[in-house]
Amino acid sequence: MFAHLNGKLIEKNPTNIVVECNGVGYFVLISLNTFTAIGSGESIKIFTKLIVREDAQILYGFATVEERSMFEHLISVSGIGPNTAMIMLSSLAPEEIAHAIQVEDVRTIQGIKGIGAKTAQRVIIDLKDKMLKLSFSSENIFTQNNTNRFDALTALVSLGFDKKSAEKAIEKVSSGEESVEKLIKDSLKIL
Length: 191
Hints:
Elements: E1 4-12, E2 16-21, E3 24-30, H1 32-37, E4 43-52, E5 57-62, H2 65-75, H3 82-91, H4 94-102, H5 106-110, H6 117-132, H7 147-158, H8 163-173, H9 180-190
Parallel strand pairs: 3-5
Antiparallel strand pairs: 1-2, 1-4, 2-3, 4-5
Helix pairs in contact: 2-3, 4-6, 7-8, 7-9, 8-9
């Protein structure tokens, strides 16, 4: 119903904001990622998703379209409601959630407060195909925009290496032109 709000930022808290549009103040729940992305300026544009329940109509806000898209994917999974999805988006950036799903990193997803092993596995099973089609506008080199590095990282994580260690190793050996195989071999020498 509401795709976005463009107005004056009246109030800003870590979990919610109030945006005034033409004299009406909208109370919008946000993630910590959105909280840090929102500046302190008066004018704001926030992408929204309205959730209608039996007892309430709740407006959720996101700094980017990608974050809103991730929220919509997460709430489509059985056992994940809007509040759990916001906790997930507060714990990890949308691209980190997508990456964890793509490489089937159950531990990362399970590390989020309120997510158990079964729910983490369900998230991966339900969303893996959808996450492979996503790309994010951030400059993170491990998104789908740089396929060789992403594929090498995926392979190293699936071999059991820690994600952060694998990222550092790939960063050290990469000049931007290597094949996936060369990236993996050179990274394994460091790891």
